[in-house]
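Fold this complex.
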Amino acid sequence: MQWPLTYHEKKRVVQLAIVLALAGWIAADALLGGAAYWQRVWLRLPLLLTGSGSGWPLTGGFALNIFLGLGSMALAAIMGTLLAFGMMAKSRLVRLPCFFVMNFLRNSPWLVLLFAMLYIIPFNVRLFGVSIAVPAFVKAVIGLSLPTAANFAEIIRGAVQSIHSGQWEAARALGYMPMAIYSRIILPQALRRMIPGWMNLYALLMIATSLATVTGIQDVLTTLNTLLSMENERVIVYFYITTLFLFFAYCYPIALLARRMEQSVKGDTL
Amino acid sequence: MNRTNALIELDAVTKSFASFEVLKGISLSVKDGEAVCIIGPSGSGKSTILRCINGLIPIDGGRIRVGEIEVHKLRSEKEMRPLRHRVAMVFQQYNLFPHRTALQNIMMAPVQVLGHDRREVEERAHRLLAKVRLSNKADAYPGQLSGGQQQRVAIARALAMEPQVILFDEVTAALDPETVKEVLTAIRELVDEGLTCILVTHEMKFAREVAERVCFTDHGRIVESGPPAQIFDAPQDPRTREFLGQVL
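Structure:
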C-alpha cells in the first residue's frame, strides 16, 4: 500500500479496524466469563434458527422469517408490477388512483400497516359457503407485502422513466406500437436497472420481517422471547447480539451484491 | 412548383408547445427523389418540421400529405404504421437500442413490425451494413461503436424499412469533425441514388453540395427557399444574409 491512501484503501482500513475491535471485545469478554453464556446461546441456536430444539422440522425461528420474506416479496412483485403499470397508464382515471395508493402505502409505517392487516383481515373467510381460516402467517405476508409492493412499483417506474426518451422516439419512428415498445425496447433495458433496487428492497423487507412478531407467529423474535423467559438476565444480551448477527449475515451479502450490480449497470445509457 | 406531383406536401402547418408557437404556418413541398436541406438558427422549428412529417408530433393546424397519406388526419399509432413504413428517420443522438447488436438493431423493425421474412431481412441487413462500410461490426453493441459508426448503423436501420423518404435530424451535430465525413459520405450516396431526403443540418458546405433546394427557417417560418447557389451566394432576405454571415 502506498501513502497517501486512496478512498477505498482508507475504507478497508476502517472496516478492518472495526472488525478487529469487535473480535477483540468479544474475545476479552469471553475470557472474563462470557464463554459460559456463549455456550448457552450455542445450545439454543437450533431453536432460534428453526423453531425446534433439535433443528428439524422447520416450524419457526429464523427459517420462518426467511419464508415470510420470500412470500411477501413474491406477493409484492405481483401487486407492485400491476401498480407500476397502473401508474404509467395513459388514462388519468387509472393513473391517479394508483399514484394515491402507492403514496399512501409508501408513506405509512410498516408496523402500523401490519397491525391494520391483523385487525382488518378476518380470522375466517367465507368463500362459496366454505369457511377458510386465515392463519396469522398469511396476515403477516399480506401486511408486509403492501409497503413492499409500493416500493417495488416505484423501482419499476423509476427504471422505465430513466430510459432516454430518444428510445421511444426511435421505436415510434420505426412503426412500433406502444405495447411492443414496452416489451421489446424499454423493459429489456429497464429490467437491468430494476434488479439492484429489488435486491435492496428484499434486504429491507427481510429486516422488517422481525416486526411480524406482533402477529404472534413463531418467528425468530417470538421464539427468542419465549426462550429468554427461561434464561437468566445476564445472558439476554448475548442472545440479542446473536439474533442481530443472523439478520446481518443474511442481508449484508444481498446488499453488497446489489451495490456491485448497480456499479456494473452504470453508464449503459443512451 | 407543380404541386400535383409532390411526394410530400405541407400546407400552413402550425404547432405550439404550451404558449410557445414553434411553427407559424409552414408550407413546403418535396418532389419524389428530391433532396431538400433545411437550415436556420437553433429553435427556429427545423426539427419540429421533421417530427410533424412522420407524425411523431401532432400538429395544431394546416395539412400534411405524404403520398396519399394525410398525416394530419391520423389519430392513433396504429393508423400511423403505413406512414412510418414509408418515412424513416435518423436522429441526432442515434437512438440505437443499446441492448441489441448492430445487426439486430437493423433487423428488429422489419421483422417485428413489417413482418418480413427473417432470412430475407438478414440478407438485407448485411447488404446495408456493407453499404455503410460496417460489415465487420455486425455483432458489436452500440456501446462498442464510435459516434460515427453508430450513426451509420442508424442510417442502415432506417434504410432497412425500405422507406420512400428519409428524414435526417442534425445527424452530424453530436459527432466530432473527423467522423462527420464518413456519415456525410453515406448520406450523399443515398441522395445520388435518388432517395427522397429531407435534411436538417448545420453543415453548410454539405447542404450546398447535396441539396437541390435549401430552405432557411427562422422563428417558425420558412423565410426563403431556392437552389443552394441562390441561397448561399445571393440571399434575398436580410435575415438569411445575417444568418449566413454568422455561420459561413
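Residues 7-50 of chain A form the longest helix (44 residues).
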